[in-house]
Amino acid sequence: MEVMTAIRGRRSIRKYRPREIPTEVLEEVLEAGRLAPSAGNRQAWELIIVTDKGTLGELVPACKNQQFVGECSAFLAAVEVPGQRWSMTDLTIMMDHLTLAAHEKGLGTCWIGAFDKDAIGKLLGVPPDRSVAVCMTLGYPDEDPSPRSRKSPQELYHWERYGSGNEVFGLPDACFVGVADGNLLSKA
Ligand SMILES: Cc1cc2nc3c(=O)[nH]c(=O)nc-3n(C[C@H](O)[C@H](O)[C@H](O)COP(=O)(O)O)c2cc1C
Fold first, then answer.
1. How many whole angstroms separate alpha carbon 113 and alpha carbon 121?
2. C-alpha distance from residue 80 to each of 94, 118, 131, 139, 185 (Å)
3. Is 150 touching ligand 1 by the criterion CB < 6 Å?
4. Tens place of pLDDT for every residue, the chain, 188 residues?
5. pTM, two decimal places
6. Which of 73, 85, 154, 162 qualifies as a cystine partner to 139, CB 3.0-4.6 A?
7. 12 lines ligand 1 (CB under 6 A)
8. What are the structural domains of the chain?
């Protein structure tokens, strides 16, 4: 699958089929995360992978009662490494790589930021000098949601200098694509 196809096709999935992920598929998805770039190549993260049904059920209250946490096939908890300035960035890149590799393999994911750090830490045996930074559900989708909206490039980009906006190009949203090698790219 083309990278852009995966990026455009990925959705947050909150409804899963009760189906195990074959070990080799799960390992391949995890590998996409392991190969992610990191500051100074320090790979300042650790990952807890939960597939046990009982534990998945126990994670629901620790994740603000998000029921689909108990229905996914695997739950991933990314652990921050203390004292490492880029740990949060490293682990975020790693997790994002996972989402795209998972999508390519027909799996759905949903980031989980709504959780109780202490409750998850206790449940998963995270040592006191470590903490779970962000989590993710993984499993075979049982829904096919439409793409969620995104801000327009005009709201997000500042070409060359903050505050310049891209109105300098005088292009409406619909035909704006980007700039490459100093050349304006448009859909027309
Ligand atoms: C850091 C982070 C935390 C999130 N936490 C949750 C969450 O706890 N529960 C949930 O249902 N979705 C969560 N999401 C998913 C977002 O709601 C979702 O990515 C956003 O609405 C865009 O939808 P899309 O992923 O389908 O494009 C989280 C996403 C991110 C990046």
1. 14
2. 12, 14, 6, 24, 39
3. no
4. 999 999 999 999 999 999 999 999 999 999 999 999 999 999 999 999 999 999 999 999 999 999 999 999 999 999 999 999 999 999 999 999 999 999 999 999 999 999 999 999 999 999 999 999 999 999 999 999 999 999 999 999 999 999 976 554 555 444 444 444 444 445 43
5. 0.90
6. 73
7. yes
8. 3-139 (3.40.109.10), 153-186 (no CATH)
Cα-to-centroid distance, 109 and ligand 1 (Å): 10
**Beta-bridge mates of residue 134:** 78
